[in-house]
Automatic annotation (TrEMBL):
Record-linked InterPro entries: Glyco_trans_2-like, Nucleotide-diphossugar_trans
Species of origin: Fermentimicrarchaeum limneticum
Gene3D superfamilies given in the database record: Spore Coat Polysaccharide Biosynthesis Protein SpsA, Chain A
Annotated Gene Ontology cellular component terms: plasma membrane
SUPFAM superfamilies, sorted: Nucleotide-diphospho-sugar transferases (SSF53448)
Ranges where the Glycosyltransferase 2-like domain occurs: 5-107
Compartment(s) where it occurs, according to its Swiss-Prot or TrEMBL record: Cell membrane
Name of the protein in question: Glycosyltransferase 2-like domain-containing protein
Main location: membrane
A single MF term (Gene Ontology): glycosyltransferase activity
Length: 236
């Protein structure tokens, strides 16, 4: 069995995935690790680019972020599973730190702090507020799992049942991990992720969107007429 597997879900990510894969391949670690891209039937050059860097490209026909991550995990061989989105760049020490932290039995999962690939006063404020809040949650052991970067031991992942088919699959996965141990949030190393969704739709729309998804994830019996956004299928 390998030391770690880095799993990247993707759908039409030819613009971003190369830099993600380059960062994954530049990990400074003694661990032997593999790179798996779980592609959701991309129509652009995503697969072509991925094949130049990944050890394996897995085609996932059913649409959804949760099933792409889970399929990649099922095809993996690593003791530690790291999930990185196709528009996120991780620093060279990410894998080494994640492996060391997960060596503590009481820790069931982790995510790392983030910065955006674009700079503005508004994005800077979102970064600061989000990281501060998530760091506090991690300090009390009830950290959130950020879909675009997280790590978990293989055994814990499969005992928890992987990412659930929920609107906010990463938040729902965190709640499953809370039952297995502490979920923490690391201030370092810090990843860089795309701000394209916020830039495209604006921070208010993004906040309402993700807040609504979180609401219908935590309250599945919520009347559908109150759900502005009823599902989330995107594979990043």
């Amino acid at each position: 069995m390998l030391g770690a597997s880095i799993i990247i879900p993707a759908l039409n990510e030819e613009r971003y995935i190369r830099q993600t894969l380059e960062s994954v391949r530049k990990q400074k670690t003694s661990l032997d690790y593999e790179v798996i891209v779980a592609d959701n039937n991309s129509k652009d050059r995503t697969v072509e680019i991925a094949e130049k860097y990944a050890d394996r490209v897995v085609v996932v026909k059913r649409r959804g972020t949760w099933i792409s991550r889970n399929t990649g995990a099922k095809k993996s061989r690593g003791k530690v599973l790291v999930f990185v989105d196709a528009d996120t760049v991780i620093p060279p020490n990410y894998l080494e730190v994640a492996d060391a932290v997960l060596g503590e039995d009481e820790i069931s999962g982790l995510s790392c702090a983030f910065g955006f690939d674009q700079k503005s006063r508004m994005l800077g404020a979102i970064e600061e507020m989000s990281n501060s809040y998530l760091l506090f949650r991690g300090m009390i052991g009830k950290g959130e799992i950020l879909g675009f970067n997280n790590a978990v031991r293989r055994k814990t992942f499969f005992e928890a049942g992987g990412f659930p088919n929920k609107p906010m699959e990463d938040g729902a996965f965190a709640r499953k991990l809370w039952k297995k141990g502490r979920v923490i949030y690391l201030p370092e190393p810090k990843v860089v992720t795309s701000a394209r969704r916020i830039s495209k739709n604006g921070p208010l729309t993004a906040a309402v969107y993700y807040g609504n998804l979180a609401l219908i994830t935590d309250l599945p019996r919520l009347p559908k007429k109150l759900a502005i956004f009823k599902e989330y299928l995107s594979v990043r």
